[in-house]
Design a protein that fits this description.
Elements lengths: L3 H15 L4 E5 L6 E2 L3 H8 L4 E7 L2 E7 L6 E7 L4 E6 L11 E7 L4 E6 L5 E5 L1 H9 L12 H8 L6 H5 L10 H10 L13 H20 L40 E3 L7 E3 L6
Parallel strand pairs: 2-9
Antiparallel strand pairs: 1-7, 3-4, 4-5, 5-9, 6-8, 7-8, 10-11
Amino acid sequence: MPELPETETIARDLEAMVLGALIARVEVPRPDVLRGGAVAAFREALVGGALRRVWRRAKCIVLEVDAVRGDTRWRVVVQPRFTGGLVVDDGTLPAAERTAICVTAHLADGRCVHYRDVRRLGTVALMDDARFASYSAGIGPEPLDSALTAEAFSGFIRYSRRPIKVVLMDQRHLAGVGNIYANESLWRASIDPSREAASLTAGTCADLLAALREVLTASIAARGTSFRDYRDARGARGTFVEQLAVYGRAGLPCLRCGRRLVGTHAVDGRQTVFCPTCQH
């Protein structure tokens, strides 16, 4: 957490709110979140630059900034992991939302973009074109990209003998899917999370891709899932938690058949919730 819907929501918010803004000053009160460069180099690359694009890649938010000198377009790649997030502060952000600030970009118009992270498990990396290309090449295709066909999806899913839930969350094969949406999509597709991926048919893989796209799209529309830490770029909570069918519902009735949902850590060491009757 945050996963694809949460980082997509934050990226869209930031794109709408700060596109074109100039960075006047950068503060890094918690430099241990930085990767690939010292604080001084981080500041030097960004101060005076303009925010030209904000988008998502996998579970990361990518802020593109024009270099002050030369024609480089720097990318600030933020990976929030468990408790990180980006928020825009126009001076009205509640004090409770200003805690655990690790990096702040002060904009020329008086606003700030804060990266907050209570546990500081997330990272903020400054990348040039070559480094970002190499980084992105190590990540699989985006599940919502229309270029990802059912045939291609089936190809890398059925190649593996690992549990299907593990394969779905492997960022080398598929971008942005974490524990919440792996659980939810497997329930929607009626697939046991522990089932060997290679045992799925091409038709079942197509159903799974459709289910995954449905749940991700629905969560983006609800602005993500908030349990504890996740907030969007305005500091608000996502509401997809109200639509969760299995995640966080172990011991409750299955919404499809009424049987009790089972929770286990046996599949991948993380909480897996499924219906032993519906999912096979």
